[in-house]
Design brief:
alpha+beta; 8-stranded antiparallel beta sheet; 7-stranded antiparallel beta sheet; 15 strands; 34% helix
């Protein structure tokens, strides 16, 4: 059933859309801007083979433009208000005709425009018609004052997360769509026009508390600080847009802050403080690097472990193969007399060498004498195979006890297989531990550093996994040792540095 109020308009629409099947729309100079003119057939071309004349737009139509403008006000997406009849405008007309109970043709007409005007007036009240040159004022050829006004509107909309890619001062489709979206959100008449009244409304409804009275330079500093830390905040232009909001929320989350997405004095201070800490850390790293000197370095490329530097073998067998100093220890079977006897021997070796030996029958130990100060840096590359039940440890030792000192141990049968230990004749203390999954023949890089205050860090392949602070040892260490208590292990390289 068609509503009664639409019956008169429907007759007009039917007449307009059926009486002129071959009509084309044009704005004729000197004629009424609402006229619908049929072009000369010679300038239009033949009809389509489907039996229906093609609709050909000869020039921009003011009437089509007004239909587009009014449909956009009503929330129908008619596309750019350019007077050009395209598929998006046609779909908007069809949607309107369907909603209003009209014959759905998708074609513009004067009667359709009158009907849409009636709908606009009923919904929003009567509005003054724009001056004839209003559309010209919204083109890209705006005056400087207009460009400044458009730029200010774009900035205000962008700060509210409306889709404004750049603050250009030029009126474009993105700006019109953003204005329409803002007008719809506020319940205003949807025009898509950039006006002084719109700018005044935007400024009046601006939530300045969201910015803590920060200047544009402050906001630009926040954006640059986020970009410097790998958070994509967009250009550091002092304008808050979606990218900046997302970057702020991500940074706040990573920093343990409430992810509000707000720019604030606290955020600016935090970023500036982080930057200062980064600079201090960089200076400290540079100073620390300059204070370290190399005490020992060996990659076994010469195939000889007996010189430059000299490695001594305390137990087991070693050879230079697999790209480094290699040893292999196979655990004996525990159900043999030999296995039981060697397990008893293991308890002695555990006490002397500082490694837990629950079922091993022996260890292979290599060491080299080097004076290592309390503050050191040890970098090694290590790989293993046949890792089931394997054990190995490395580290600086004291006196002649090759396993006493600080030890970095891998224990395959432990849930937390990598451990930083302090070993003495009296006790064995786990300073820190973590899980580490190794594959056969996988080479891992271990970076172990101890500061003068006893703070230690261990990084595996560049990632810090162990941290501890211990001051039990003073006076430095006497050498470096490798103890293999199960499996095949290869020390590919070792470099030991100490502070001057």
């Amino acid at each position: 059933m068609i509503p009664k109020r639409h019956s008169t308009a429907l007759v007009a629409v039917l007449l307009a859309t059926t009486a002129m099947p071959g009509v084309a729309f044009a704005t004729v100079e000197g004629a009424d801007t609402h006229a619908w003119a049929a072009p000369d057939r010679s300038s239009v071309g033949a009809q389509s083979t489907s039996g229906r004349a093609d609709l050909i737009q000869l020039a921009q139509s003011r009437s089509v433009l007004e239909i587009q403008a009014r449909l956009n006000r009503l929330g129908y997406q008619a596309g750019p208000e350019d007077g050009m009849m395209g598929s998006q405008t046609r779909r908007a007309i069809e949607a309107y005709q369907n909603d209003e109970g009209l014959l759905v043709t998708g074609e513009p007409s004067q009667s359709l425009l009158n009907h849409i005007d009636e709908s606009v007036e009923q919904r929003f009240g009567r509005a003054e018609e724009p001056e004839a040159d209003t559309r010209a004022q919204e083109t890209d050829e705006a005056t400087d004052d207009q460009a400044d006004m458009i730029a200010a509107i774009q900035s205000e909309l962008r700060q509210r997360d409306y889709r404004i890619p750049t603050v250009s001062g030029e009126m474009n489709d993105a700006t019109r769509e953003a204005i329409r979206a803002y007008e719809r959100d506020r319940g205003y008449l949807v025009t898509g026009r950039a006006t002084a009244e719109l700018l005044e409304d935007l400024r009046a409804n601006s939530n300045r508390s969201d910015r803590d009275n920060l200047t544009s330079n402050d906001i630009a500093a926040i954006q640059q600080g986020l970009n410097d830390r790998g958070y994509d905040a967009g250009p550091a232009d002092g304008v808050i847009g979606p990218a900046t909001r997302t970057a702020i929320r991500t940074y706040q989350s990573d920093a343990g802050m409430d992810p509000t997405g707000r720019v604030s004095a606290e955020l600016l201070s935090r970023l500036q403080g982080d930057a200062a800490e980064d600079e201090d850390a960089a200076e400290l790293d540079e100073r620390d690097d300059s204070e370290f000197v190399t005490l020992l370095s060996d990659n076994f490329e010469d195939g000889d472990y007996t010189s430059n530097p000299r490695w001594r073998i305390a137990t087991g067998e070693f050879s230079v193969r697999n790209g480094g100093l290699t040893s292999r220890m196979d655990p004996p079977r525990r159900d043999t007399v030999e296995g039981v006897g060697l397990e008893l021997l293991g308890s002695v070796l555990e006490r002397e060498l500082g490694i837990r030996l629950p079922s091993q029958g022996g260890v292979a130990t290599a060491h080299t004498a080097v004076a290592i100060p309390e503050s050191f840096r040890i970098t090694t590359e290590l790989s293993g195979r046949d890792l089931a039940g394997s054990q190995v440890n490395i580290g600086p030792y004291r006196d002649s006890h090759l396993g006493h000192g600080y030890r970095l141990a891998y224990l395959d049968d432990n849930a937390e297989s990598l451990a930083l230990l302090r070993m003495t004749s009296d006790d064995q203390v786990v300073l820190d531990s973590t899980s580490l999954s190794l594959a056969n023949d996988q080479t891992v890089s271990l970076d172990w550093e101890r500061q003068e205050d006893g703070a230690m860090t261990v990084a595996v392949n560049g990632n810090v996994v162990l941290q501890a602070q211990d001051t039990a040892f003073s006076g430095g260490f006497d050498g470096f040792s490798l103890i293999n208590a199960g499996g095949e292990w290869t020390l590919h390289s070792v470099a030991i540095e100490g502070r001057e």
